[in-house]
TrEMBL record, chains A, B:
GO terms for molecular function: L-isoleucine-2-oxoglutarate transaminase activity; L-leucine-2-oxoglutarate transaminase activity; L-valine-2-oxoglutarate transaminase activity. Belongs to the class-IV pyridoxal-phosphate-dependent aminotransferase family. Its cofactor is pyridoxal 5'-phosphate. Pathway: Amino-acid biosynthesis; L-leucine biosynthesis; L-leucine from 3-methyl-2-oxobutanoate: step 4/4; Amino-acid biosynthesis; L-isoleucine biosynthesis; L-isoleucine from 2-oxobutanoate: step 4/4; Amino-acid biosynthesis; L-valine biosynthesis; L-valine from pyruvate: step 4/4. Acts on leucine, isoleucine and valine. It comes from Apibacter muscae. GO terms for biological process: isoleucine biosynthetic process; L-leucine biosynthetic process; L-valine biosynthetic process. This is branched-chain-amino-acid transaminase.
Length: 349, 349
């Protein structure tokens, strides 16, 4: 791997501990180009422009995927990654569905480790902060024929990130727009899934909601995801979450929270959640919590759930009563080396 | 509008009459940037790289749309566009669904006219050739937060194009993968729709088919589109085509062919086409033609249609018996100023 270091670190002007999510991109990026059926040599270089023209095929035909992961610093300034192999595996599942070449484990993981090591001063230390990591792959041929690209760029960029959201959200159960359909690309982290969700979310915002709970495409009767996160529901003392499928992302945070919950002897059921069952539980007073989970936000609690013209107001639990708070605390504790890691998830860089 | 002309025309080395579809991009492009809630001044400049980084939001979140249109040269070397207002209108419909700002008619159409006028030497003269025109708009902010971009680039690029396909295709009726779903973005020309279709098409290719006929997401029982085109079916002497919907693109070629057909007293019915009705017509010997239609290819006939493990072989009509051939000839005749234009579709540049 070649490393070209920047001569002008932006750390003179940017404070990683005071950096809103995703805005300030760290000094270096990893770039690896695919051409003639093979990946070239990965290069770490100063982050910046790449001379792509507006004919870049990723822009026209959407062969573009990404991952989201984080690096954390503990009190000794040691830097840790969290389950990066899960992101590597999912990245290649996305690639396959988008007819893109798989990246090698060597380029993805060793590139990642080298990049984080080089830019370790960008990992913030403030509580709740982390270095957000964005691996991406996109079609980089420049032409107009609607076909599979012959060239791709794999890139890893990073950005210091404060907490993503900070208050319980009002969320709307979507019964018109659709995020994903069986036989589609809903289970991948491809670019098209996100742009397609912005307009329905904007409409929800105009109705006073912060986010959407996506439902199935056939009947809009079953929970799928919430915003860009997986969704979990606590009824009584059981957590329910929809099983992963070809319309639901196999979230690393989702899987980790399930494991942490079970480690705490909390029952988790991976089953379809009908809107009717939520309304019933609400009416019976057993609906205790609904929360989203994902890498960027970790866990986000919901306070109000809109459905048709009704609003269900969820109970305001004390922190010590909330599974969302408990699970988040334990997961972040593992990620930041504050707590033991019985699962072997942490990787020291 | 500012115009910066190239000092080095590529026409020294590229022959527009000998240029495969979409590969060679003409000397100039139009660029207009959106920021702070408004479009800036459009600039025509030499086609080339734009210094985008791999953090370009279009690559990550798929806010990216395009149009496809063509310019034609007649025997007097006059240059014509075909119904450009239709593309302008559809472009803004795509933009709205992708939560992108509308482009003004002035920037889109006057920019288009000025660009085609400047690069008129790029319009090929060979029969069946044209200058393919690619307007596009994409999110051009560079950051990682999964939200609506605040910056956009509108671009128009062009490329000389020989005929896209040249032989009748073998096509497969898709009954597993899905292109579009109600409440989704199927009716738009957004990037994500295309990348999502490549893998299912690749699988069809591996089974010996050239393209896919997409069916509805609920039951896979009704025709929707074929490949990246609208689809038309001739049973007896009636043409059937699915009505446009929120899963089917409102094709300019589709609409034009319907008008040309009706002008020829051919009956056209815009109704849902079930796979069962196709199989029945095939068994009764009344299934005469199936063809795709779109700007890039105009009309493409299908010779074989695969469904489950069966292949339906369509009759080999003589050119003078084929509606597909008749309609294509008349449409291209109008586009290239070989025939009268009773519809007022042609615009001279």
């Amino acid at each position: 791997m070649e490393i070209k270091k920047t001569q002008h670190s932006k750390l003179d002007t940017i404070d990683p501990n005071n950096s809103p999510f995703g805005v300030n991109i760290s000094d270096h990026m990893l770039i690896c180009e695919y051409e003639n059926g093979q990946w070239g040599k990965p290069v770490i270089m100063p982050y910046g422009g790449m001379n792509y023209s507006p004919a870049l095929m990723a822009i026209h035909y959407g062969q573009a995927i990404f991952e989201g992961m984080k690096a954390y610093k503990d009190k000794n300034n040691d830097v840790f990654l969290f389950r990066p192999e899960k992101n590597f595996e999912r990245f290649n599942k996305s690639a396959e569905r988008l007819a893109m070449p798989p990246i090698t484990k060597e380029i993805f993981l060793e590139g990642l480790y080298a990049l984080i090591d080089l830019d370790r001063d960008w990992v913030p230390t403030k509580e709740g902060s982390s270095l957000y990591i964005r691996p991406t792959m996109f079609a980089s041929e420049e032409m107009f024929s609607a076909r599979i690209s012959n060239k791709y760029t794999f890139a890893i960029m990073t950005s210091p990130a404060n907490s993503y959201y900070d208050k319980p959200l009002k969320i709307k159960i979507e019964n018109h727009y659709t995020r994903a359909v069986s036989g589609g690309v809903g289970f991948t982290k491809c670019a098209g899934n996100y742009g397609a969700s912005f307009y329905p979310t904007l409409l929800a915002n105009q109705q006073g909601f912060d986010q959407i709970i996506w439902t199935d495409s056939q009947e809009h009767k079953y929970f799928e995801e919430s915003g860009t996160m997986n969704v979990m529901v606590r009824i009584g003392d059981i957590i329910y979450t929809p099983p992963v499928s070809n319309t639901i992302l196999n979230g690393v945070t989702r899987d980790s929270l399930i494991n942490v919950a079970r480690h705490n002897k909390i029952e988790v059921r991976e089953e379809r959640i009908s809107v009717d069952s939520i309304v019933n539980a609400y009416q019976q007073g057993t609906l205790k919590e609904i929360f989203g989970c994902g890498t960027a936000v970790v866990v986000n609690r919901y306070s109000h759930v809109g459905y048709n013209d009704n609003i269900m107001e969820l109970p305001t639990l004390k922190d010590e009563e909330s599974y969302a708070v408990l699970l988040k605390k334990q997961l972040v504790g593992i990620q930041t080396n504050e707590l033991d890691d019985p699962f072997g998830w942490r990787i020291k860089i």
